[in-house]
């Protein structure tokens, strides 16, 4: 996994820690760590490294359309499709309730091979829903590529059972190793996040922070 990108995320403080008031993930899981890759769009030099890493990761895949997930995947899909001179789409979480009523905007995906661009994978739920949307629209998804994954077992399962390749530039263990070697996180912080990552679903309830029920 890519150490340079992990370092960039840490140096630009996209990675945040808060054990006293843990973050709530979209899945409802509570966490003392949050990786806010959205912040990286603010840094032209570093974001270019991330765009190049996305392109490197997907270089062996044959795709016709670059599709960003709404919302955090969209800026990356824009830069990637621009660099590769390929058509771009973006995938909404739900059909738009007015206007043209689309769920996929931009390039027509019907009958096309689509590469989905996501910023981050936790449970994999959001990005796999994007895969299903592409399939429903008549496209095939050659892979989902994301900047970062927490390597949850659940995410691996969702993708392998759903028959879609999941590619990631960097991951939790690489991030933790870089943070340790470069002295970015203290021993206490490192053991906090390692403890959480062993059993993310039960970490919150065990520490007095119930998970949020997302239905
Ligand atoms: O793997 P999952 O458990 O689904 O979690 C990861 C998703 O959560 C975040 O999106 P968020 O819902 O915060 O929306 P945003 O992209 O609009 O910021 C992130 O951008 C991923 O899409
Ligand atoms: O699961 C999430 O919602 C999530 C986790 C994280 O670290 N970063 C993010 O943007 N979303």
UniProtKB/TrEMBL annotation:
Annotated source species: Candidatus Scalindua japonica
Gene3D superfamilies the record matches: 3.40.50.2020
Annotated catalysed reactions: orotidine 5'-phosphate + diphosphate = orotate + 5-phospho-alpha-D-ribose 1-diphosphate
Domain of life: Bacteria
Residue ranges of domain Phosphoribosyltransferase in the record: 55-148
Binding residues for orotate: 122
Name of the protein in its database record: Orotate phosphoribosyltransferase
Gene Ontology BP annotations: 'de novo' UMP biosynthetic process; pyrimidine nucleobase biosynthetic process
Keyword Transferase belongs to the record: yes
EC number: 2.4.2.10
Family statement: Belongs to the purine/pyrimidine phosphoribosyltransferase family. PyrE subfamily.
Biological role stated in the UniProt entry: Catalyzes the transfer of a ribosyl phosphate group from 5-phosphoribose 1-diphosphate to orotate, leading to the formation of orotidine monophosphate (OMP).
Enzyme superclass (EC): transferase
Pathway(s) of this molecule: Pyrimidine metabolism; UMP biosynthesis via de novo pathway; UMP from orotate: step 1/2
A GO term, aspect molecular function: orotate phosphoribosyltransferase activity
């Amino acid at each position: 996994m890519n150490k340079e990108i992990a370092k960039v995320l840490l140096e630009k403080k996209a990675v945040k820690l808060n054990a006293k008031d843990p973050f709530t993930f979209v899945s409802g899981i509570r966490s003392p760590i949050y990786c806010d890759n959205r912040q990286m769009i603010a840094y032209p030099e570093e974001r270019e490294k991330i765009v190049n890493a996305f392109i490197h990761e997907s270089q062996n895949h044959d795709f016709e359309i670059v599709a960003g997930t709404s919302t955090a995947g969209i800026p990356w899909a824009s830069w990637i499709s621009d660099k590769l001179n390929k058509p771009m789409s973006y995938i909404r979480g739900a059909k738009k309730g007015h206007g043209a009523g689309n769920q996929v905007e931009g390039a027509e995906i019907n009958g096309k091979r689509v590469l989905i661009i996501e910023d981050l994978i936790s449970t994999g739920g959001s990005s796999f829903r994007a895969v299903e949307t592409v399939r429903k629209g008549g496209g095939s998804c050659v892979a989902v590529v994301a900047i970062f994954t927490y390597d949850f077992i659940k995410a691996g399962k969702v993708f392998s059972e759903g028959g879609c390749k999941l590619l990631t530039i960097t991951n939790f263990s690489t991030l933790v190793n870089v943070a340790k070697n470069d002295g970015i996180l203290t021993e206490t912080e490192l053991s906090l996040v390692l403890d959480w990552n062993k059993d993310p679903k039960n970490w919150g309830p065990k520490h007095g922070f119930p998970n949020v029920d997302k239905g």
